[in-house]
Write a structure and sequence with these properties.
elongated; 5-stranded mixed β-sheet; about 25% helix; wza like fold; 4 helices; 3-stranded antiparallel β-sheet; alpha+beta
């Protein structure tokens, strides 16, 4: 019994010491595993459409967490590049925002320890569709999201009085070859053959004879 009285306090003390050490280790592991705070989203950012890649004239916000001097709103130049403070020119065209973020992060790591970068889209000017012919407001129109032929015609002010609206064509390029798709405005306006009211793709040209 004496032996028990001597060893019990020692055993409890050892258990408490082990518990403290384990708790400290767990806290350190949790702290190291905790992700860094996300860089703030730039005001005016928009959600790009599925499959979006950056193009010339698009406006982006490149934001560094805790590094305001490196953060900047930039427009993609015709050569596909953007210019950032300290980092100079970086190729952006043809990349997704996430891919550009990775590229900027890699470039910034030479100057900043563990850079935390966010790339957001503020304006999409590279994606355009065109409408010409007997339409009230012919010209290029930005394709910031999903848009059908009928929606483009409405944005362009509608077909003119003497337009042959049953013979409208959508010109696009598929696999490097020009393709002409027919569109009958009168049928769609009457709720008929709605499948011809297709979603437009960047570069499509709608011709209203």
């Amino acid at each position: 019994m004496e032996r028990l009285r001597v060893h019990v306090p020692v055993t409890i003390g050892a258990i408490l010491m082990v518990a403290v050490v384990v708790s400290a280790q767990e806290q350190r592991q949790q702290a190291s595993a905790r992700p860094a705070p996300a860089a703030p989203v730039a005001p005016g950012a928009i959600v790009p459409p599925p499959g979006y890649v950056i193009g010339a004239d698009d406006v982006l916000a490149v934001t560094f967490w805790r590094e305001k001097d490196l953060s900047s709103d930039v427009a993609v130049r015709p050569d596909g590049k953007i210019t950032l403070p300290l980092l100079n020119d970086i190729e952006a065209a043809g990349l997704t925002p996430d891919q550009l973020r990775d590229r900027v992060t890699k470039a910034a790591s030479q100057y900043v320890e563990d850079p935390n970068v966010t790339v957001t889209v503020k304006a999409i000017n590279s994606r355009k569709v065109f409408i010409t012919g007997n339409i009230s407001k012919p010209g290029p129109y930005p394709l910031g999201g999903a848009m059908t032929v009928m929606q483009l015609i409405a944005m362009a002010g509608g077909v003119q009085e003497f337009a042959k609206s049953e013979r409208i064509l959508i010109m696009r390029t598929e696999d490097g070859k020009p393709v002409a798709l027919k569109f009958n405005y009168k049928e769609v306006a009457d709720g008929k053959k709605l499948t011809q009211n297709i979603e437009l793709l960047p570069g499509d040209t709608v011709i209203v004879p």
